[in-house]
Amino acid sequence: MLGEEASKEALSALRKEMGLDRPLYVRYLLWLNHVARGDFGRSVRDGRPVLDTLLLKLPVTIELAVTSLLVAWVIAIPAGVVAAWKQRTALDYAATTVALAGISIPNFWLGIMMIYLFAVNLRLLPPSGYIEPWIDLTRSLKLMVMPSIVLGAALAALVMRLLRSSMLEVLGTDYIRTARAKGLGDAVVLIRHAMKNAMIPVVTVMGLQLSGLLGGAVITETIFAVPGLGRLTVDSILTRDYPMVQGVVLFAALAVVATNLIVDLTYAVLDPRIRLGAHTE
After folding, report:
1. The whole model's pTM is what?
2. Full DSSP string of 112-127
3. pLDDT, tens digit, for every residue of 217-251?
4. CATH number of 132's domain
5. pLDDT: is 216 or 37 the higher one?
6. 3-state secondary structure at position 168
7. Is 136 helix (H, G, I), strand (E, B) or coil?
8. Could you tell me if residue 110 is inside a domain?
């Protein structure tokens, strides 16, 4: 911060100003006290309040997380249901193979290949960058297509396999056999009876993945130059901006806690037995 030619007096004054002359536990307690009052400190790099920067980057990461989840849902839910319903058929084997490929392909490689194909060769999409949706919605969506697919593909593969195994377990239960014996159609059995129970483990995985996305998709945001929390984390680490790194890590932890709470509340919506459990005990 002061340069290589800084004097000892200047170094000592800066250390005192930043509180680095105090014991570690004292600095930690002071930091917690400031955080409780909404003061996350100031960035070493530009001197801006850390909280202001986090709030500026957060909408970008939320947009990327939401579009990635939409991509995952659109791919995984139909594929998982069909693979379970048509078990040991060509559709099942094809869906399982695609899911295995989606889990195996690294994000950085898929991102580079998509840029090379769709931006460099076909010129269908912009290679990288970000623009706010309220400024230019069309271009904003185009810029989000590739990073959303990169993140959504791996998540879709995981969710599809989990949903398939969960659906197979549900389809083998007595109440599903009873529903079929009553003459209900395949669509009714799948959607009204099997899907809600099969979605419980899927919601758990989705919640964990969403908290990770809100904490910052570091590799993907770096490849596509998306100025979200992931890119902010990388830049802060490279510039040794410790207050900013602390702020990002704290926000990621809070995102995990909040997402887990939402997932727990969703369980009660999907399965009324969970909601009634507290009253029957």
Report:
1. 0.80
2. HHHIIIIIIIS--S-S
3. 888 888 998 998 888 998 999 988 888 999 999 98
4. 1.10.3720.10
5. 37
6. helix
7. coil
8. yes
